[in-house]
Design a protein that fits this description.
It contains 7 helices and 9 strands, in the order βαβαβββαβαβαβααβ. It has 237 residues and is α/β, with parallel strands linked by helices. It has a single domain, classed as TIM Barrel (Alpha-Beta Barrel), CATH 3.20.20.370. The strands form 2 sheets. Strands 1, 2, 3, 6, 7, 8 and 9 form a 7-stranded parallel sheet that branches. It has a two-stranded antiparallel ribbon with strand order 4-5. A hairpin with a 2-residue loop joins β4 and β5. α1 runs parallel beside α6 and α5 runs parallel beside α7.
Length: 237
Amino acid sequence: MNLRRQLIVNADDFGLSQGVNRGIIEAYENGIVTSASLMVRWPAADEAATYARNEPGLSLGLHLDLGEWIFKEGSWSPLYEVVNLENIDGLDREVARQLDAFSRLCGQAPSHIDSHQHVHRTEPTRSRLIAIAAELDVPLRDCSSGIRYCGDFYGQSSNGYPYPEGISIEGLITTLKALPPGITELACHPGFGDNLDTMYRSERTLEVQVLCDPRVRAAIEANEIALRSFRNVDLNA
């Protein structure tokens, strides 16, 4: 097999709820998910961490949770905010708290770091997280050389409107066929249950179905794509 194209399929929001946990586990055991990112602040985090400790094949990272924003009446407004992103001291303390919580829950450092709604892409969070990821020697989503990030598998537009084409079997296969040489991280959000207090709900069940569809696995094999996790990716391939 040609290993020039390697794919990490990372499930965000592990620990958000029992339903999300079940969906991620389903997509890992019967689909193409290889890694997950843990939200340590949420009620089902301990359950998720316990599962991951007994599944060494599932690479587990930190899904830094500093808030969530929803698009409503033409503008973005906070659903909740954990910390003021402009407060550098508060930001540093919260990041440290979540890293410590991850270590307590998982017994090890995260294999990678990303953030809820990509808040680490903007300053000052970006610089802080780049430094922390470098210290831990782990990738930071969309900020680490050698690993390309792909967010195409998503069921909403940039303003939160439904976009079912983004999480269709056909759409995912098209994305897979177009993967460039090298390592790509593909994010996903599988889960069960529509009662979450979040803007991304019903799409999660469909994601589970698509990620577990045998046609997707067949497309990966037909296009000679090697599935990898953050723990076993070959940066020299």
